[in-house]
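User: Sequence recovery, please. Input:
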């Protein structure tokens, strides 16, 4: 083992900030998530809205990337992207996916699994029109996940679509929202001696069953 590998293997941290018990957790996983997210916002955790999205391609190979949550309610968790991107194509072929939030400073992780669907055109239009102008032009300029010869392609595309649409670019037909409809939630709270708290909520007969998992 190299000295660099040894130094990584020796990294240790004792998690002692909080606990998560059945009695203190909320009956609804959405309410529990909202409580933790609001606490992350209050603690000014960097990028509290960033979440890892895991999808699986037709060849059964998984891939992950970071996306930003833009809304959540009883229907699920929403983000926006290019439907022609790698993740969009993978979700078109296999709609099951997983999300993960990692709020390092609070020693917390939230994992969500479920089926993904597109949000309505009206929802996508409303969010698209709320974005800054350069972001709306960028949705036209970037052929997301495709190979390009250089950054100059993006700059040229942005100039072209900026001149074409001026201050009112419409939402591209290949751009919009996805919603993950949860079937399983897991809340992880770091604890001392690696005896972490893990509470899982499973959708069972249209109701949430809560259970503790061993760390």
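Assistant: Recovered sequence (215 residues):
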């Amino acid at each position: 083992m190299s000295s660099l590998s040894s130094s990584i293997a020796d990294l240790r941290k004792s998690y002692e900030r909080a606990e998560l018990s059945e009695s203190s957790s909320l009956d609804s996983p959405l309410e529990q998530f909202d409580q933790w997210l609001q606490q992350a916002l209050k603690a000014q955790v960097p990028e509290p809205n960033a979440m890892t999205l895991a999808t699986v391609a037709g060849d059964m190979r998984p891939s992950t990337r970071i996306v930003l949550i833009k809304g959540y309610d009883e229907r699920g968790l929403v983000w926006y992207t290019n439907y022609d991107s790698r993740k969009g194509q993978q979700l078109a072929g296999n709609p099951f996916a997983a999300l993960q939030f990692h709020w390092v400073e609070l020693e917390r992780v939230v994992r969500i699994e479920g089926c993904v669907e597109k949000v309505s055109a009206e929802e996508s239009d409303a969010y698209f029109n709320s974005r800054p102008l350069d972001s709306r032009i960028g949705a036209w300029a970037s052929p997301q996940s495709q190979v390009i010869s250089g950054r100059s392609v993006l700059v040229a595309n942005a100039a072209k679509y900026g001149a074409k649409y001026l201050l009112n670019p419409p939402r591209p037909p290949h751009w919009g929202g996805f919603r993950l409809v949860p079937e399983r939630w897991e809340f992880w709270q770091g604890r001392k001696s690696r005896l972490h708290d893990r509470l899982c909520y499973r959708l069972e007969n249209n109701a949430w069953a809560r259970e503790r998992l061993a760390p």
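Residues 95 and 116 are 5 Å apart (CA to CA).
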